[in-house]
């Protein structure tokens, strides 16, 4: 039975990856930060009964308290598990927040990666353990080439992107210096019903669901013109696994090869709730109007603009399709939006039922 360690296991990607690996017959270990509040919601689907939350010894799923910024802790955990595969998904991954917390972002996204690589090296696990580093399309930032592929020059436009560049290059450096199987998956935007509610896609689908059910008046957003290559996170974790099963360590772009605007994401989201959007005005004065009622339900708020904007990101998945036989469009953009809206409509309905129980 293979052993895998996932950092960031309570996140969107971590929860999907844990499920995927358990289905493959892995013994899965997850790194989780200690918190005074419950932060394991996304793992609920993995737990088969009430006692499973305490992770019974005979389970193939185990949680370990730790933090990638703590080198001693990381080294101890890796030394105890001796994993065949490590998926480093831990990150401060919110681009806008990285401008407010640049130092913390660097510690987690940059130094955290180094701590894992160095732990594997000093523990003498370089021949045994394969390492996947979650890289990002934000490396490309102010794009130098369209579409972006593995050879496209980097030009990050946020502290998050800059921190991730360190993670990318230190992974490549350890691969070349110590003959480690350490690779980067350069993931373009990938979303799901498990996405954090502060990320723009989930903010849109949840906002659309609440507006449709009369629980919210307006949805306020930043740059509607931003273009992104959006895929389904559940599909992308399969590609992470395929990268580590490849016969040699290589870096891969993980993307759909299609690009859509934030505006289009908004329109499709409301369409799936039965609302048709009409646009009026331009720039910061642009508004989205409910065609049936004439009500303004979408507004642009300058506070959501980034200090340095990334206008467009479009990945070229040709290498992953060719060498890994991965299908980047298994879930279409339209289906992704539908899945997210459907789940958020259910979430809002459930919240309302619970509220009425206590009223």
From TrEMBL:
InterPro entries: GDP_Man_deHydtase, NAD(P)-bd_dom, NAD(P)-bd_dom_sf. Its cofactor is NADP(+). It is an enzyme of class 4 (lyase). It catalyses: GDP-alpha-D-mannose = GDP-4-dehydro-alpha-D-rhamnose + H2O. GO terms for molecular function: GDP-mannose 4,6-dehydratase activity; NADP+ binding. It holds the Pfam family GDP_Man_Dehyd. The keyword Hydrolase does not apply. One of its GO terms (biological process) is 'de novo' GDP-L-fucose biosynthetic process. Residues 5-340 form the NAD(P)-binding domain. It comes from the Bacteria. Its EC number is 4.2.1.47. Keywords: Lyase, NADP. Catalyzes the conversion of GDP-D-mannose to GDP-4-dehydro-6-deoxy-D-mannose. PANTHER family: GDP-MANNOSE 4,6 DEHYDRATASE, GDP-MANNOSE 4,6-DEHYDRATASE. This is GDP-mannose 4,6-dehydratase.
């Amino acid at each position: 039975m293979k052993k895998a360690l996932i950092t960031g296991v309570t996140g969107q990607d971590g929860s999907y990856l844990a499920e995927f690996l358990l289905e493959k017959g892995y013994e899965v270990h997850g790194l989780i930060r200690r918190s005074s509040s419950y932060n394991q919601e996304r793992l609920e689907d993995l737990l088969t009964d009430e006692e499973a939350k305490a992770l019974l010894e005979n389970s193939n799923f185990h949680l370990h308290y730790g933090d990638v910024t703590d080198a001693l802790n990381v080294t101890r955990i890796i030394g105890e598990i001796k994993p065949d595969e490590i998926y480093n998904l831990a990150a401060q991954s919110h681009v806008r927040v990285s401008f407010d917390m640049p130092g913390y972002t660097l510690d987690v996204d940059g130094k955290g990666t180094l701590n894992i690589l160095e732990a594997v090296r000093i523990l003498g696990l370089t021949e045994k353990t394969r390492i996947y580093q979650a890289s990002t399309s934000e490396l490309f930032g102010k794009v130098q080439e369209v579409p972006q592929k593995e050879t496209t020059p980097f030009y990050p436009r946020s502290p998050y992107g800059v921190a991730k560049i360190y993670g990318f290059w230190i992974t490549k450096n350890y691969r070349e210096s110590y003959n480690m199987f350490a690779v980067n998956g350069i993931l373009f935007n990938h979303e799901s019903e498990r996405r954090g509610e502060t990320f723009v896609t989930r903010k849109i689908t949840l906002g659309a669901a609440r507006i449709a059910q009369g629980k919210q008046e307006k949805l306020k957003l930043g740059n509607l013109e931003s273009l992104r290559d959006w895929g389904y996170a559940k599909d992308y974790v399969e590609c992470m696994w395929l990268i580590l099963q490849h016969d040699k360590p290589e870096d891969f772009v993980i993307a759909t090869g299609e690009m859509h605007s934030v505006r289009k994401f908004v329109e499709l989201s409301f369409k799936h709730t039965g609302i048709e959007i009409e646009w009026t005005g331009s720039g910061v004065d642009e508004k989205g109007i409910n065609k049936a009622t004439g009500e303004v339900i979408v507004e642009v708020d300058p506070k959501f603009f980034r200090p340095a904007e990334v206008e467009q990101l479009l990945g070229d998945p040709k290498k992953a399709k060719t060498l890994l036989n991965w299908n980047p469009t298994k879930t279409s953009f339209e289906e992704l939006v539908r899945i997210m809206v459907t789940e958020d409509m259910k979430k809002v309905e459930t919240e309302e039922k619970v509220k009425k129980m206590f009223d």
